[in-house]
Amino acid sequence: MRIRRHSPASIAMLALVLASSAFFAFAGFYSGVREEDYRNLDLPILNVHTYGRQVSSTENFLDAVYTLDDGDSHWEGGCKIKGRGNSTWRTIDTSKKPYLLKLDEEAGLLGMGSARRWVLKASATDKSFLRDEYAFHLAHEVWNRFAWTPRQRFVNMVLNGKYIGLYGIQEKIEIAPGRVDIDPAQGSILLKIDEHRNTRYSFTSNQGVIFNIVEADGMEYSWDEFLEIEDLVNDREEYLYGEKGSPGDWTHYFDLDSLVDWYLVNEFTKNHDSRFQGSCFIHYDGPTGKFYMGPVWDFDLSSGNTDASGCSDADGYITDQAFWYDHLLQDDIFTDALKGRWKEKREELERSIDLIQGWADGLTDAAILNDRVWKSFGHRQWPNPRGWRNRKTYQSEIDYMTEYLRARLAWLDSQWGGD
Hints:
By secondary structure, the chain is α+β, with helices and mostly antiparallel strands. 33% of the residues lie in helices and 19% in strands. The chain contains ten helices and twelve strands.
């Protein structure tokens, strides 16, 4: 079945761009990548045209058109594109950049939920391309007590006629049906914990956590509503830290299941950002009056992929450095639930590591082609985890990741009890 998604206004633009494709075809010569090289790979192809303009900003969208083919289905239409990310956009170690794609019309790309906004993940800092994929799998299938977890599909991406590498199309974290499906009109709130204050409304809680309020399309919080949200967070923190109420009362205001599962996904992969440093999401559900951790997000600096804060060591904790969790890990209610959940899912977790090689087998040719352009294997590329000079092939990166996770499993077994 052929699926078409386009607005009438985009037809003329699309025709103009496609007519120019022959002109752009030579653009990949510098890397030695020909059109048949990426078309012969068993991956969908995302083609975006900005009429030759360079995507150089994370603030301003460029008008564009896109096509996406996976062999069986086809999507096309008008769109906008801009850069995205903080450290991944600014790093000087690589020119491969992540993007945000905003479609003119909603589309359910590659079997994912219908939406307009899609993250184009470059994985320039993750030479395995699989750290997000693995963490999303854990949150979908192993420690899965979340209201929603993003999905990802891999594509070969072409920008203005030039092949730019292997990318992941990811569902964006936003308030919308099929994504974070909460209703702000009922008092529900989506918050991002991040040291970057990159929303209109951000505040630091009494316990030192930096929150950014995520607004839904078409809504805008008033100043009074912003202050009410700040007061709500500070009030609930007092229960969490035992400054108000009786021991255990915090469970009336925080969902224990999602707190435990979010901790386990991040601690097992030793995600550097899980210290409440960046892109940690939490939402408040107005009808239940509880905070829920999630969705999980941003695992570039996980599974041994940075030396910072001891993250390339398979032993030692990382998420205990996060506000809230530093206190929760001293609470018997939380630690008993944590150890019980670890033992419950431990065998399933061990089997999940074996999936990584199968995913890698399907990406190997695409990863090698990507490397012909970006020259990443065995080369300096932030965050430069130990041993990077010796990992000169895609398979060596996969071996490093899986060996790290098996060592991590063994160490956490020694802490929490194995099977």
